[in-house]
Amino acid sequence: MSNLEFKxxxxxxxxxxxxxxxxxxxxxxxxxxxxxxxxxxxxxIYRISIRDTNGEKIIMCNNCEGEVSTQRxxxxxxxxxxxxxKIKTEYVPYCKKCDNxxxxxxxxxxxx
Length: 112
Ligand SMILES: [Zn+2]
Fold this sequence. Notes:
Blueprint: E1 25-29, E2 35-39, E3 45-50, E4 57-61, E5 69-78, E6 84-94, E7 109-110
Parallel strand pairs: 5-7
Antiparallel strand pairs: 1-2, 2-3, 3-4, 5-6
The structure holds zinc ion.
């Protein structure tokens, strides 16, 4: 675990510019080929596991081995001080046993 090198996958690199995001995923692989997922925002680490039956990838808690849940988080987009026109939605992983659920309403997005 200690020598894991986390990197934001290229397809998600743009997300780091969005200060409002609750979740910016980083991926690392250990010397056994096991993949880990870290949220750059809070540095929580999860493990990516393959379900035997159909090869589907699932995210496991590295702490309790439970399957990780996702919380839908909405961000209000403010175009000026008084108008709220739209929302942005993201899905934030968290462990129901070990983590506090992410806030349902995340940081606002300001577009002036
Ligand atoms: Zn857990």
